[in-house]
């Protein structure tokens, strides 16, 4: 069941996306409401699944993760058992920040964050030792121009 989102809900969601650590008073003041109605709306959106887990965004480079690779994978295997092993391997690897199954010539794209090229090679060797892939292309990001988790509300 989809929850109906009105403009006040959108304002609250924009504020939470901007900084989920701000107080209810700050959010209420920004959206032009009071604390209790804002809290009730947030609780309803959380219960409806509109709001998921709250987390913090870490500075990857400050923590030594200086390389981002986009990994394009083609496979000749399309059986359920292969896909299950592949998905388990991806989920077990913290280096994989995102994984998408694609339509078109490429079957999967991964966003892999590691310390450097040597760490990527270690990741790659471990992955191909667990699951068979037909072709892998790794693209090193030279510069992150834009990164956001915010939806365009």
Automatic annotation (TrEMBL):
A Pfam family that the UniProt record links to this protein: AsnC_trans_reg
Keywords: DNA-binding, Transcription, Transcription regulation
SMART domains xref list: HTH_ASNC
Record has Protein biosynthesis as a keyword: no
Database matches in CDD domains: HTH_ARSR
Claim: Transit peptide is one of the keywords in the record: no
Domain HTH asnC-type stretches: 5-66
Name used for this protein in its record: Lrp/AsnC family transcriptional regulator
Organism: Thalassococcus arenae
């Amino acid at each position: 069941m989809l929850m109906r989102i009105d403009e006040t809900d959108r304002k609250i969601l924009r504020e939470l996306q901007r900084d989920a650590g701000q107080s209810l008073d700050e959010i209420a003041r920004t959206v032009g409401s009071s604390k209790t109605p804002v809290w009730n709306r947030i609780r309803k959106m959380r219960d409806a699944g509109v709001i998921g887990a709250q987390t913090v965004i870490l500075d990857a480079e400050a923590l030594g993760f200086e390389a981002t690779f986009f990994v394009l994978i083609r496979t000749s295997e399309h059986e359920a058992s292969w896909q299950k092993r592949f998905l388990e391997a991806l989920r077990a690897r913290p280096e994989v920040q995102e994984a998408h199954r694609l339509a078109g010539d490429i079957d999967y794209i991964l966003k892999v964050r590691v310390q450097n090229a040597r760490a990527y090679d270690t990741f790659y060797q471990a992955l191909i030792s667990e699951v068979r892939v037909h072709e892998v292309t790794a693209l090193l990001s030279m510069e992150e121009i834009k990164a956001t988790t915010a939806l365009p509300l």
